[in-house]
Design a protein that fits this description.
There is one protein chain. The chain has four helices and five strands, in the order βαβββαβαα. It is of the alpha/beta class. It has a five-stranded mixed sheet, sandwiched between helices.
């Protein structure tokens, strides 16, 4: 398989959860993974599949931060894929606004409007 933009991926929200699992999966498949998160120290973790996970501080809510992260990845070998896994906890947002009784209403409203969870 040819990788015209490099066998590299930038994953946001990669410090935990689905983002971290995706980072490990791609690195084990031989990719260079730029693991973006708001709070991290930069490091490089070599993986068994020949890839590596490079932590990268970035905040997807900040355009300059996001631009710098993409530019760095591109300048250090290319970037073929971007995967966004950064998100705020839906549960914490709903509980803060609605309390426990409001938990079901936003979910049913999303189904009616065609939103995905």
């Amino acid at each position: 398989m040819r990788y015209p933009y490099g066998k590299a991926i930038l994953i946001t929200g990669a410090s935990s959860g689905i983002g971290r699992a995706a980072a490990e999966l791609f690195a084990d498949a031989g990719y260079t993974v730029w693991a973006g998160s708001r709070h991290c120290e930069e490091s490089v973790e070599k993986r068994q599949g020949g890839g590596e996970i490079r932590s990268l501080q970035m905040d997807v809510c900040n355009e300059d931060s996001t631009r710098r992260a993409v530019e760095r990845a591109v300048s250090e070998g290319g970037l073929g894929i971007v995967l966004n896994c950064a998100a705020r906890s839906l549960r914490s947002i709903i509980l803060a606004r609605c309390g426990l009784t409001g938990w079901c209403c936003p979910i049913s409203a999303r189904k009616e409007k065609g939103w995905c969870l």
